[in-house]
Design goal:
Layout: H1 2-13, E1 18-19, H2 22-28, E2 39-43, H3 48-60, E3 65-68, E4 86-90, E5 97-101, E6 106-109, H4 115-124, E7 129-130, H5 142-147, E8 163-169, E9 175-177, E10 211-218, E11 220-221, E12 225-233, H6 239-251, E13 260-264, H7 265-272, H8 288-292, E14 297-305, H9 308-322, E15 328-333, E16 375-385, H10 388-405, E17 410-414, E18 420-430, H11 436-453, E19 458-460, H12 476-487
Parallel strand pairs: 2-4, 3-4
Antiparallel strand pairs: 1-2, 5-6, 6-10, 7-11, 8-9, 8-10, 12-14, 12-15, 13-14, 13-17, 16-18, 16-19, 17-18
The structure holds flavin-adenine dinucleotide (FAD).
The site of flavin-adenine dinucleotide (FAD) has 33 residues, from strand 3, helix 5 and strand 10.
């Protein structure tokens, strides 16, 4: 079957876009942690019609395909499919910015459009708008990140909340548009999310029910009076008070959603340098508690004010609320150098990617590529109630497991609403050290299961964890299986990706 499918794909895409050579396939099978899935080939359509043809061929020869946009899903599986023997459908050649409107503040993009490309484009247009960027690679995809329900910096950081008009190729090859996009002359297609009738954008995110070939993303005005603020808290056992103070500020809107983050000292150290092998005489893990008596946390946020007066009033509210809860609080305004590289106002940066090299002893090569360079990274993303006491409880569980597996707890928090905390847990290690792949995954599994036991379920999953969630208390599995069977009768689209097959009442599919 696969031989016939490859021939058929070569007919429509030409040989150069159907890749089966060992180097390509083995790179596509490599993530930032150990995986066993084999990839059969990588196919690269160049437009929507070719995507549809690729899907029809996959159905004809019953060959599963696994769509990726830019494939930078580092720490969560990279380009590796959830199941064995898939062909990767690489959409990075579809890389056009197809629409942009300064007044109504939106941009419409294809899957191959990267954060860097969108940023450069907006600067070329001399736009007064910015797109929320991520801490991940500037060469990651706007669409791929949205479909994973990723997090960005700034008030549009909850990406799915700020997109509309998805163009989707269904697993049968048909094409649909969400919202008003199905009407050729709809004037509100790019500015109204709900359209008329059932709203279904959500079912194409964290799912395997469609291939998104176009999406409109909303942009934010660059604030007239931006201010950065940073804070430090040295005694981590008091962080619950800071969390509760920030919760009030986010709930009332003084600090905007996703506009403040808290990083622990190990996350800062990894972003700014490498493991101190010499100082530690080759031993791991690094414990600042043992060495310096404290494991401080650092806050970093931005105020998006429309005037100086507004900005200074907001600043005062923050100073009052955080008084006595932090050891240091510093504000800097638009003239500060810090603004030139500020991810909070849409400047993409790969600074953070260097943290994946934390425990590597070899020099960082350019461009950075953690898959290629044997950087071990496993993300774990639980969501917690925005409550200091619960946070302390969860953090205690997380840190004690890190300690027992001898990795540094690399932890970050963002605040997507006044009600919840997104926790970014990274296990960072060197894949070239024997046994580390296994130890790191055991550490991940232990944290995952311990948090789930306490009711802290992750909001995003790595490819290794698709069947790690607890049983549901309702008919969720039946609904997912009905949707999947109905939309994808031949089971050709990304089998296993967020479809929770272990929950299905009947697995004969
Ligand atoms: C140091 C570091 C920092 C990071 N910081 C962040 C961060 O701040 N926020 C964040 O969200 N993530 C972060 N990440 C994780 C990751 O790098 C990003 O989420 C990145 O955007 C994912 O890569 P991509 O956009 O190229 O998506 P892809 O890898 O292309 O896509 C991700 C998945 O979505 C599905 N998919 C992709 N495109 C399509 C499509 N067109 N149709 C259907 N399904 C599709 C596929 O299953 C694919 O595997 C970070 C990673 C690292 C290593």
């Amino acid at each position: 079957m696969i031989v016939k499918a490859l021939d058929a794909w070569r007919n429509i895409l030409s040989t150069e876009n159907v890749l089966t050579d060992t180097a390509t396939v083995s790179a596509a099978q490599t993530a930032t942690f150990a995986t066993k899935q084999r990839v059969l080939a990588l196919i690269r359509p160049g437009n929507r019609a070719e995507v549809q043809e690729c899907v029809r061929i996959a159905n004809e020869y019953q060959t599963p395909i696994y769509p990726i946009s830019c494939g930078k899903n580092w720490g969560l599986g990279s380009r590796v499919p959830v199941q064995d023997n898939c062909v990767i459908l690489d959409l990075s050649r579809l890389n056009q910015i197809v629409d942009y409107n300064e007044k109504l503040a939106y941009i419409t993009v294809e899957p191959g459009v990267t954060f860097r490309q969108a940023y450069d484009y907006l600067r070329e247009q001399k736009s007064n708008l910015f797109l929320s960027v991520i801490g991940g690679s500037p060469d990651a995809s706007l669409i791929g990140n949205t479909l994973e329900r990723g997090d960005g910096f700034g008030p549009h950081g909850d990406r799915l909340d700020h997109v509309c008009e998805l163009e989707v190729i269904l697993p049968t090859g048909e094409c649909v548009h969400s919202g008003f996009g199905r009407f050729a002359n709809a004037k509100a297609a790019k500015i109204s999310r709900w359209g008329v009738g059932p709203y279904f954008d959500g079912i194409f995110t964290q799912s395997n029910l469609g291939i998104v070939t176009r999406m409109t993303m909303w942009l934010m005005p660059i604030p007239k009076y931006p201010q950065l603020f940073t804070c430090t808290i040295i005694d981590a056992s008091r962080i619950d008070q800071l969390i509760d103070a920030v919760q009030s500020l986010v709930l009332q809107g003084t600090i905007k959603t996703n506009s403040f983050s808290l990083w622990n000292c190990y996350k800062i150290l990894a972003a700014e340098g490498r493991y101190p092998w010499k100082k530690m005489l080759g031993q791991t893990p690094l414990s600042l508690k043992q060495l310096k008596g404290a494991e401080p946390w650092f806050g970093n946020g931005t105020l998006y004010s429309a005037s100086r007066e507004q900005g200074l009033a907001e600043r005062k509210l923050i100073e009052q609320a955080l008084e006595g809860k932090v050891d240091q609080l510093i504000f800097s305004d638009e003239d500060s150098d810090a603004f030139k590289e500020n991810t909070f106002i849409g400047v993409p940066s790969d600074e953070n990617i260097s943290s994946t090299y934390w425990r590597k002893k070899t020099p960082i090569s350019s461009p950075m590529n953690p898959d290629r360079d044997g950087c071990g990274v496993i993300w774990l993303c639980p969501v917690l109630p925005f409550d200091g006491e619960q946070f302390l409880l969860a953090i205690k569980i997380i840190e004690s497991i890190f300690d027992s597996y001898r990795f540094e707890p690399n932890l970050g928090l963002s605040f997507p609403s006044g009600r919840s905390i997104h926790v970014f847990i990274a296990i960072i290690y060197d894949r070239d050290v024997a046994g580390e792949d296994q130890r790191a995954m055991e550490c991940h599994d232990k944290i995952l299961h311990s948090l789930i036991q306490e009711g802290y379920i992750p909001y995003r999953l790595g490819i290794q964890s698709m069947n790690s969630l607890p049983p549901t208390q309702d008919d969720y599995g039946k609904l997912i299986s009905t949707l999947k069977r109905g939309l994808d009768p031949n089971n050709i689209l990304a089998p296993g990706r967020y479809d929770f097959r272990s929950e299905w009442f009947d697995t004969n599919y």
